[in-house]
Amino acid sequence: MCSTIEQSDTIEQSEIVSVTASVADSVGDSYCICWFILERKEEIMSSGIQSLLKTEKEAAEIVNEARKYRTNRLKTAKQDAQQEIEDYKKSKEKELQKYEKEHEGINEQIDKDADVEVETELKHLKEQFEKKKSDVVKLLVEATITSHPSLHINATK
């Protein structure tokens, strides 16, 4: 009976108790039962520890993979954002150049219009000068030659 029990490899710890009780009732060989229980208990404990270690190692690998994934996603997001910024700068520079080209002629036209206006004002002032030049000269000569002596207001009489 002990040989059949030893060959069973898939017995769980809860099954060991029921198998032990049934074997003890039928066979009565306590040595065989105790040996079987101790051997299976050591197997179960060592396999349990090994499975816990294996599971812990797998969990650590999963966490490391998640960290690597997150780090890679952050790097790519940063690169994408930098590229977007550069593209935006380039588009705004193009818009500025286009605006300057469109309004370049307008500024030149404004300058030309201002020059024409200044020239017409100068021409008008020269005409006025030529018209009134002789009258002003007559007034200055007359004021210099003719004098009207009079006492100053603050002078006492």
TrEMBL record:
Organism domain of life: Eukaryota
UniProt keyword terms in alphabetical order: Coiled coil, Hydrogen ion transport, Ion transport, Transport
Coiled-coil intervals: 52-142
GO terms under cellular component: vacuolar proton-transporting V-type ATPase, V1 domain
Pfam family, one: V-ATPase_G
A single MF term (Gene Ontology): proton-transporting ATPase activity, rotational mechanism
Keyword check for Ribosomal protein: no
Keyword Coiled coil in annotation: yes
Family assignment from sequence similarity: Belongs to the V-ATPase G subunit family.
UniProt function note: Subunit of the V1 complex of vacuolar(H+)-ATPase (V-ATPase), a multisubunit enzyme composed of a peripheral complex (V1) that hydrolyzes ATP and a membrane integral complex (V0) that translocates protons. V-ATPase is responsible for acidifying and maintaining the pH of intracellular compartments and in some cell types, is targeted to the plasma membrane, where it is responsible for acidifying the extracellular environment.
Stored PANTHER family: V-TYPE PROTON ATPASE SUBUNIT G, VACUOLAR ATP SYNTHASE SUBUNIT G
Subunit comment: V-ATPase is a heteromultimeric enzyme made up of two complexes: the ATP-hydrolytic V1 complex and the proton translocation V0 complex.
Protein name: V-type proton ATPase subunit G
Organism, scientific name: Candida oxycetoniae
